[in-house]
Amino acid sequence: MKKNYQKIVLVGALFFVSANVFAQTNDSLSVKSVDEVKITVGSRNKARVATDTPVPVDVINIGSQSVLSPQTDLNQILNYAAPSFTSNSTTVADGTDHVDPAQLRGLGPDQVLVLLNGKRRHTSSLVNINGSPGRGSVGTDLNAIPAFAIERLEVLRDGASAQYGSDAIAGVINVVMKKNTNAFTAAITGGGFNSKGANDHYGGWDGGKYQLDLNYGTKIGKSGFINFTANLLSRDDTRRAKAATGEIFNAYNAIEQRALENGVNISSLFENINNTPNTTQIIDYIHKYAPSVSYFTAAQQAGIQSASTISELQNLLKGDVTENELAYRGLARDDFNMRVGQSKLGSGQFFVNSEFDISSAVRGYAFGGISYRSGNAAGFYRRPNQNRTSTSIYPNGFLPEIASDVIDLSFAAGFKGKLGNINYDISNTFGQNTFDYTIKNTANASMRYPNKREFDAGGLGFSQNTINADFDTKIDWLKGFNVAFGGEMRFEKYKIENGEEASWALYDINGNIQTPTTVAILKPTDFLGAARPGGAQVFPGFRPENALNKGRHSVAVYVDTELDVTDRWLMSAALRFENYSDFGSTFNYKLATRYKLTDHINLRAAHSTGFRAPSLQQMYFNATATQFVGGVPYEVGTFSNDSDAARYLGIPQLKQEESTSYSAGFTAKIPQANLTFTVDGYYIKIKNRVVLTDQFSRPSGTYPVGSDFWNLQAAFDKANANAATFFANAIDTQTKGIEGVVSHKANFSERFSLNSDFAVTVSKTNRVGDIHGSDVLIKAGQVNRYYSESSRVYLEEAVPRFKASLNNALEIDKFSLLLRNVYFGEVTDPNTMDANGDGIVSGEIINGQAVATEHPVWGGKVITDLSVGYKFSKNLKLTIGANNLFDIYPDKNYGPTVVKTPSLDSSGNLVYVNTSTIDLSNQNQFIYSRNVSQFGMNGRFLFARVNLNF
Questions:
Q1: Are the CB atoms for 47 and 38 separated by under 8 Å?
Q2: Do 903 and 911 contact (CB within 8 A), yes or no?
Q3: Are strands 401-419 and 150-156 parallel, antiparallel or unpaired?
Q4: At a CB cut-off of 8 Å and minimum separation 6, what does 14 contact?
Q5: Which helix or strand (DSSP H or E) is residue 691 part of?
Q6: How far is Cα 382 from Cα 735, in angstroms, rounded to an integer?
Q7: Which residues are bridge partners to 487 per DSSP?
Q8: What is d(CA 86, CA 800) in angstroms, rounded to the nearest whole number?
């Protein structure tokens, strides 16, 4: 990492020195930059520009990005354009495959507030509960907004809860929509991954992406406008696994296949192999078709023919015959690969932005849109030799698919004007996100033959309605005093809809749902006698017990002021009070200042408190299943925060996260060289941070009455639970960082210009203080499950802590060129492994327990984007280019490794005596980590784009 850091800094320094020298002698034209537009976030003074604020605000021109950039969705545009922003696609992570978690300053996806045209944007209905950065959080789905509808992005990199309310701990992203009129523009983009890793590392092309963007604007009246944007996208999946290793077929599968080829389905003749009227028939068929398996030895054939009971045949037919059976069926190990990589996606989006005169003194506005996405991701391959595979309908096993329908709807309307010296803006903003699951190419292994292959697994929904009344005025005091004040009411609803019965049920052999009294001989098994699981494979549906419809409301008032004390000194202060119907009230403030040392050098600093209200998704999400232990039903899974399980195990009601932040920095301009510098450092402390715990479990064994373990057993029993995961305010954290941006804009002639930006961010997040846990769990030794070692890595080290980018946009007559290098720093994998090759997985004693703490660290990489455009006419421009030009991949994952793991001896000392095999690749499927990735695992993307303008 250190060498790459030195290289990128050196390249950046040399570039800016050379560009500066050239610009000083040749620059003759001054052009207003996007940084100098009046911003609408970070300051409610409508005359404030980005370079004049007391806190850092980045302004990103999405219009220019959409022409040359290889990235077309908003998350990835920001990921490459703004080093403080991180967003990465996940793989084999259920619903998270279709919604990319996004983070600012290394904090959580739910700790950045998103605005659309200055109005609060609703969050996704999906909570990230799988293994990915942002685990346990609920973010805003930025990809639900088409990038082609956006004029610019304003990224406020500072705490702003006192100004904008909940979530704005890391900052605020304001998406400003286009206002173009009298113009029709279109972009047609086609591309795909041309990479050495494509098609499961056989090379070639995969992951084709085809996108159509349309935008049209026209005037309304004398000064109004209406602007429309439409988007259509089709994206194919990518595959980055290698040939599956391990056992696939057993001897029973071989005989079963020979019988199927002759019209006999042996597996359809039983539900429980030990309780079927067809025992004799099954044995006869096995005797009949075993001789057709030519690779069985004479001894094996003799043993099969002499076996007269199912139990004898089970012992004979459980052996591995994978290689021979693959050859017989004309299959290869590649046919059993998972779909590791980019998920399939199809989407359509339509957005509108408008302003119009209601009267000569009142102006109305309305904007919003609808986004529909149909995604398809796959899970783990179900192999024929596994008890969860219904070989009666899938003789070769199957790859189950999670199909998602995500509908995102938003609409805002309001009116604004002026009463005397007071500007007012009254608005209502509604947003809704639904996430419905259909599980395809799958089976419920406990269902009777013939089984279903597709299930409605239920869905999630979140809606938010926000009413705002905002006022501002200027007072002639000192050099100008801007006062803004207002109020907000917000209504939120969250629902879980259960799936069809077959998507979640565990049936007996008669087609009835199993109960505590269901005896073993009525429970479905495979041929070898292993009990079959219930529910749709890969994603059991939500049960009726999980279904709910919850809501809450909040009210807020605020005042936000800016005072120009002198021509050089600006001071600002904000206060905000909010009251939530579920957890109570919060009061926050912000102080900020900027001082102009010279006309071109500003010093700035800010201090604020902030908060994030726990989302309804975190408070009420639950996904549980029933397990029977000794005939007693127990619930396992994720329990809602208001459940009996949470109450009896001492998990308190979720409350708000509270933050305290400090920042300081400077901005500088060198007008003669067209150079702008900004450097800002920050410190953010967050109390009572919400995390998704690991699984707490009921202790087994018998313990003295009143002992800590007995008390925990009693709590689990009272809650009727056996294992439980919760959302909890479990930890406090601190985040420290520094960010720097250098921009250079040179216009060497009317037809020759160069814009360059060099940006760096360094951040570090870590837990401070003790874990906030319940007495009953802590005393029973389960405190580490509140905030496990893997949770620590996800929070602290799973996204790059160092990131740098160098962007160069060159215009030469009709040619345009984008050259961008982004360095994504190292990340740590949450899985443990012998990463240093010494034969052990190093550990530590944490809270009296041996915990493995040695993780793979995936090294930093530089990703290069290159695009070249040619303007054939004022109406037509063609761009070709590449993302990840040099086909860079993350470091490779670890395969099967025999290691010694940490444990405690009788004296409480750390020892390494237990041996196990760790395979992070999951039998050669995850060649690169599925849990963390700085820039994805798809390799080089080539594209062509046609831009039309009429």
A1: yes
A2: yes
A3: unpaired
A4: none
A5: strand 675-692
A6: 42
A7: 469, 557
A8: 8
Q: What is the identity of the amino acid at 823?
A: Y
SS3 701: coil
pLDDT in tens, 152-171: 999 999 999 999 999 999 99
Q: CB neighbours of 190 closer than 8 A, spacing ≥ 6?
A: 208, 209, 210, 211, 943, 944, 945
Q: Is the dihedral of CA 790, 792, 797, 799 positive or negative?
A: positive
Query: Is residue 794 predicted with pLDDT exceeding 50?
Result: yes
3-state SS, 842-889, equals CEEEECCEEEECCCCEECCEEEEEEEEEEECCCCEEEEEEEECCCCCC
Question: Counting runs of H as helices and runs of E as strands, what totals does the chain give?
Answer: 16, 39
Our CA dihedral for 379, 383, 388, 392, rounded to 10 degrees, sits at 120
Rounded distance between C-alpha atoms, residue 945 and residue 188, angstroms: 5
pLDDT tens digits, 847-896 = 999 999 999 999 999 999 999 999 999 999 999 999 999 999 999 999 99
Least trusted range by pLDDT, from 64-68, 460-464, 481-485 = 64-68
pLDDT for 7:
38
Question: b/e per residue, 606-630, with b = 16+ CB within 10 A?
Answer: bbbbbbbbbbbbbbbbbbbbbebee
**DSSP reduced 3-state for 896:** coil
How far is it, in rounded angstroms, from Cα 948 to Cα 184? 8
Distance (Å) of CA 641 to CA 605, 618, 649, 652: 39, 8, 11, 8
Query: Whole-angstrom Cα distance, residue 679 to residue 664?
Result: 8
User: Hey, what long-range contacts does 820-823 have (CB within 8 A, 24 or more apart)?
Assistant: 820/80, 820/864, 820/865, 820/866, 821/8, 821/11, 821/862, 821/863, 821/864, 821/865, 822/80, 822/83, 822/862, 822/863, 822/865, 822/935, 823/4, 823/5, 823/8, 823/860, 823/861, 823/862, 823/863
Q: pLDDT for 283-293, tens place per residue?
A: 999 999 999 99
Check whether the bond before 450 is cis (ω within 30° of 0): yes
Q: Which two tokens stand for residue 520?
A: 């073993």
Q: Beta partners for 864?
A: 821
Distance CA 823, CA 730 (A): 33
What are the tens digits of pLDDT across the range 904-925?
999 999 999 999 999 999 999 9
Residue-wise pLDDT for 7-22, tens only, equals 333 334 333 333 333 3
How far is the C-alpha of 428 from the C-alpha of 414, rounded, in Å? 6
Measured CA to CA, the distance from residue 92 to residue 342 in angstroms comes to 9
**Amino acid identity at 880:** I
How far, in Å, are 107, 127, 420, 682, 906 from residue 137 at the CA level?
Answer: 11, 6, 45, 23, 40
Question: Which is it for strands 112-116 and 171-177: parallel, antiparallel or unpaired?
Answer: parallel
Q: Please state the φ and ψ torsions of residue 326, each to the nearest 5 degrees.
A: -60, -45
- Triad 185, 191, 194: Cα angle to 5°: 160
600 φ/ψ angles, rounded to the nearest 5 degrees: -125, 0
- Name the strand (E) or helix (H) holding 428: strand 422-440
CA dihedral 930, 936, 940, 942 (to 10 degrees): 120
Half-sphere exposure of 877 (CA within 13 A, CB side): 23
Assess contact for 175 and 115: CB atoms under 8 A.
Answer: yes
pLDDT of residue 627: 62
Say which range, 27-36, 261-270, 591-600, has the weakest mean pLDDT. Answer: 27-36
Residue with tokens 């398996």: 293
Structure confidence at residue 513 (pLDDT): 95
Q: What is the pLDDT of residue 633?
A: 58
**CB neighbour class for 70 (10 Å; exposed up to 12, middle 13-18, buried from 19):** buried
CA 15-21-27 angle, 5° bins: 110
Q: Are 923 and 245 in contact (CB under 8 A)?
A: yes
From the list 727, 731, 704, the residue with the least C-alpha distance to 649 is 727
> If residue 327 lies in a helix (H) or strand (E), which one and from where to where?
helix 322-329
